[in-house]
Design goal:
By secondary structure, the chain is α+β, with helices and mostly antiparallel strands. The protein is 58% helix and 12% strand. It has 4 helices and 2 strands.
Length: 65
């Protein structure tokens, strides 16, 4: 089962509110592993100027690209 764009927005907003994968999965009628995989699949890694790595979510990619 695929995760649609609306689900991804709900996942992002819920994570920003501190809601757990399990609670998000229950709301979307999906397995918590599916939520975890979606987050892992769509996160981005940015390199800082001082060459240390920093993990940012897709929201930050759109804001700072």
């Amino acid at each position: 089962m695929t995760t649609c764009a609306k689900d991804r927005i709900i996942i992002e907003q819920s994570l920003n509110e501190g809601i757990s994968f399990k609670s998000i999965a229950k709301e979307l009628h999906k397995d918590p592993t599916t939520i975890s995989k979606e987050v892992k699949k769509h996160r981005t890694i940015k390199i800082r100027k001082d060459n240390t790595r920093m993990v940012k979510c897709d929201k930050f990619k759109r804001m700072y690209s």
